[in-house]
Specification:
Length: 308
């Protein structure tokens, strides 16, 4: 997401902003009737985007996301349908929290994914209305940010996890849902955590294979902060540790359908090394259920390597 930037709204983007709203709403607001959708579109097309704080998320000078905040309330946060699920919503959300100090939002109760999205950032419902602001029969959840949700504004610190500290299993098992396997490599490897304030937001486990090779066995970032560069910082930290230990090669692996991780690893300089066919099928005894990435069954394991 390095090539995506957030800028203040300019009227030259007006047509694109309305288009992003329409494409996003069509993809996420299936509960809205056709007649009401036309009504809302006409209302959006008449909005004075200079009357409150509106920002555009640009990718190669194309608007792919919009954010609007008024009186500390998020009035709009929409991502173009082609870019939903790629971390851009989180990018705008963190901007709203850290730069605009937003702490309130009204969400369509029927938009379950949106409710979950805001909940992950610390928003909780405090009121409910049967109708929306236009008087239509779409229930609204009024949500506000919990007072202790300060994770997003604190400085990131990466350090080694002490043996006496609690192991961040929740994060580790998000990346590798086999506690048996996780326990096997954290007992023989080194665990590093990234913290913001008092919260552990990322973890990385390094395991020495031999004198010249080290492997990143587990890398996980808390879901609300994924796509914000923390995974990249953890990998850079791993590079530094590997070099200090005299290693010449670093490995990392993931399932074949995990496109997001494969993209990140290659951007960090890793190259395809080899594939372990039927890895997950052959390790069913280590997992409680069949694993899926991006809706595709995990079968083979791709191993990537980088020369240091």
């Amino acid at each position: 997401m390095e090539d995506a930037k957030i800028i203040a709204y300019d009227d030259k983007y007006r047509e694109q902003v309305v288009s992003v709203w329409e494409r996003s709403a069509r993809a996420t607001h299936h509960f809205v009737s056709f007649e009401d959708f036309i009504y809302y579109k006409q209302a959006v097309s008449k909005i004075d985007f200079f009357s409150f704080s509106v920002y555009c998320l640009l990718k190669k000078d194309k608007v792919i996301g919009i954010l609007g905040v008024a009186d500390l309330s998020i009035e709009m946060l929409f991502i173009d349908a082609d870019f939903i699920g790629q971390g851009f919503g989180k990018k705008l959300m963190l901007f709203a929290l850290t730069e605009l100090q937003a702490n309130k939002v009204d969400v369509n109760e029927q938009n379950i994914k949106a409710v979950k999205f805001y909940s992950k950032f610390g928003f909780v419902a405090y009121d409910r209305t049967e109708k929306d602001s236009e008087g239509k029969d779409y229930p609204i959840l009024k949500m506000k940010l919990q007072e202790n949700s300060n994770i997003f504004s604190s400085e990131l610190t990466i350090r080694s996890l002490n043996k006496s500290e609690v192991i961040p299993y929740k994060l580790l098992l998000d990346a590798d849902p086999s506690k048996k396997l996780v326990d096997s490599y954290i007992s023989n490897g080194e665990t590093y955590v990234a913290t913001q304030g008092c919260e552990t937001v990322a973890v990385c486990v390094l395991l020495k294979i031999n004198e010249e090779t080290i492997e990143i066995k587990n890398l996980a970032v808390a879901e609300p902060l994924q796509g914000m560069g923390i995974g990249k910082k953890m990998i850079v930290n791993a590079f530094g540790i590997a070099k200090l230990q005299g290693c010449k090669t670093i490995l990392i692996s993931t399932s074949t359908p995990n496109i997001g991780s494969l993209y990140l690893y290659q951007k960090m300089g890793f190259e395809y090394d080899y594939i372990v066919k039927h890895y997950f099928d052959n390790n069913l005894n280590n997992y409680d259920e069949v694993l899926f990435d991006n809706g595709i069954k995990c079968n083979h394991l791709i191993v990537l390597s980088k020369k240091l």
